[in-house]
Design brief:
The protein is α/β, with parallel strands linked by helices. The protein has 18 helices and 27 strands. Helix 2 packs across helix 3 and helix 2 packs across helix 6.
Length: 559
């Protein structure tokens, strides 16, 4: 960018016009060009599927859905671990315009039941794992134990007509996946083709739920158009600063649970780019992940901070060949510079992405300046706008902390059935208010310093925890740090740094406070420093749970 910014607003143009096609139409074009290429590898399940196989089998599944009476706009739930049948149901549904609902495995059964009710699901597909999926489902759909598969007649979830079961634990009221695929085999394939042609890029493609930590989880609804933004965003780093090619998604390792947005975007990469995705397993395991990278010659992946730490801590780390692993995208937590340096033992580039379930906003590139990569800074994705505003909604000058807002093609459509919550987050003019605090510099790079809700208010002054965390992260004894606010009678809140030390590392509270002096204002030097022996609690998506850490700190301090 040649012109320097003076206010915190940035607009990044698209490099190419949008195709105007649905994901299903693009997938079929890609599959026709690469019929015999591997599309998905299910490492733990020892299954491999080519583009032709996924095309034929997903359309067979789609035929079965049409035979059951599903149509464009209906909802279908997918519940369980990461297996072939999840992607089979997802790919079939998106081709014919049925909206998939990603039922997070960690949700309580009462929440799952309400999810089925609220979204009016007509079909639920149960995975083969966990092995008790049918038992779980029957606790909220008791008719599965007594009624026939074609006449569930559910009392609590009346919209639900069919349950397809891919596991070996069967209930009377479920249709086995084998029988369902036979049902779709004889269905008129031209009807499937016609259904694919009727799907528009602005149609809903999926509903993915937030963690629900502050109430009932919000159903984030994405369209074909918004989901297609993610593969385009990662194409920003097709070469490094020296001009060497980076084949990030060529053989992509998918670690996250299919219940989250990160896995859905990873699963979509082959559909639109013609690459191969390797699914690590039904559940995450660091040893299996290392085997996948080594055996499958993985070129890229998305990892959270604990994934990187886990691999680097493997006792047999030196037994693995990571030379194929070219780039890793991370997010959720700021990666300390020390960990970024250690991670070069695994991959050539560790790049941070910024966004959430609602949309992908900004990303790093290997060609970004070193100071940007280490600060860290992000550049807004193509076809997006970003601004930083004060509490009155006014755009701030550059380098001033305020709330980050963005709008663009990657943004979600709405929270399913939540009109008021949608209006609160996504304004009529299209701006999404993230609730995150950050700055934009004169070159358009974004830096995130924390959450509005996590601001510490001391003596009436707002403090962003991220600034102090970055400083403490650089101390050689510090493994992880979370800065939280704790109650104080005089100042309203005080600064508390919760620290996990590296094994065998020794450092005192006074030494850490002294380390902070001169790097931050005296006002920011923490009043309390707590050394935590146990791992920090995390959210369902793997991020450190700041709210629970703050509760632990208050308990320890007796406040």
């Amino acid at each position: 960018m040649s012109q320097k910014l003076t206010k915190s607003y940035m607009h990044v143009l698209d490099k190419a016009p949008f195709s105007g096609k649905s994901v299903g139409k693009i997938f079929n074009e890609v599959a026709n060009r690469n019929p015999d290429k591997e599309m998905y590898v299910f490492y733990a399940d020892k299954e491999r599927k080519t583009f032709r196989q996924m095309q034929e089998e997903s359309q067979q599944f789609a035929g079965g859905l049409l035979k059951l009476g599903l149509k464009k706009g209906d909802t279908l739930g997918i519940w369980g671990g990461n297996h072939y049948e999840w992607l089979l149901a997802y790919l079939a549904s998106l081709q014919i315009g049925v909206t998939t609902v990603n039922m997070r495995i960690d949700f309580p059964l009462s929440v799952q039941q309400e999810v089925i009710q609220r979204l009016g699901m007509k079909v639920v597909v149960l995975m083969r794992s966990p092995s008790d999926m049918c038992d779980r489902a029957s606790q909220i759909i008791p008719e599965l134990l007594t009624n026939s598969a074609d006449n569930l007649n559910c009392q609590i979830t009346p919209s639900l007509k069919y349950v397809i079961n891919a596991g070996t634990n069967h209930c009377k009221g479920t249709i086995s996946l084998t029988d369902f695929m036979e049902m779709g085999k004889g269905f008129d394939r031209s009807t499937v083709t016609n259904a694919i042609d009727r799907v528009d890029f602005d149609d809903p493609i999926s509903v993915t739920f937030t963690s629900g930590s502050t109430g009932f989880p919000k159903g984030v609804t994405h369209t074909h158009r918004s989901l297609l933004m993610i593969p385009e965003a990662v194409s920003r780093f097709e070469e490094d600063a020296d001009g060497n090619p980076i084949h990030f998604s060529s053989r992509y390792a998918l670690i996250m649970s299919f219940g989250g947005m990160g896995a859905q975007t990873g699963a979509t990469l082959p559909m639109v780019k013609g690459d191969t995705t390797i699914i690590v397993g039904p559940t995450y395991d660091a040893q299996i992940l290392a085997n996948v990278i080594h055996d499958e010659r993985v070129t890229g992946s998305a990892m959270l901070i604990h994934h990187l730490n886990d691999i680097l801590s493997l006792p047999n780390f030196d037994d693995y060949d990571f030379s194929s692993f070219q780039a890793c995208i991370s997010g959720g937590s700021i990666i300390p510079h020390s960990l970024r340096q250690r991670a070069t033992k695994i991959t050539k580039h560790v790049l941070l992405g910024y966004g959430g379930t609602e949309g992908f906003a900004a990303i790093q590139s290997p060609t970004d300046p070193t100071e940007i990569l280490h600060s860290p800074g992000y550049f807004p994705v193509d076809g997006s706008e970003m601004k930083v505003i004060d509490d009155d909604g006014q755009i701030l000058p550059i380098n001033e902390i305020g709330e980050i807002c963005f709008r663009g093609r990657s943004l979600f459509l709405h929270y399913w059935g939540e009109v008021e919550k949608t209006k609160a987050a996504k304004k009529p003019n299209g701006w999404y208010h993230t609730g995150d605090l950050g700055t934009l510099d004169e070159s358009g790079y974004l830096r995130v310093v924390g959450r509005k809700a996590e601001r510490i208010i001391k003596e009436g002054i707002n403090i962003a925890p991220g600034n102090l965390e970055k400083v403490l992260d650089e101390h050689p004894a510090v493994s992880n740090v979370m800065v939280v606010g704790v109650p104080d009678e005089r100042t309203s809140e005080e600064v508390c740094a919760c620290i996990r030390r590296h094994p065998l590392a020794k450092v005192t509270s006074d030494e850490l406070k002294e380390f902070c002096r001169g790097k931050v204002s005296d006002f920011l030097v923490p009043k309390y420093i707590l050394f935590m022996e146990d791992a920090f609690p995390t959210t369902e998506t793997g991020k450190f749970n700041r709210r629970k850490i703050a509760e632990q700190a208050k308990t320890i301090l007796g406040l």
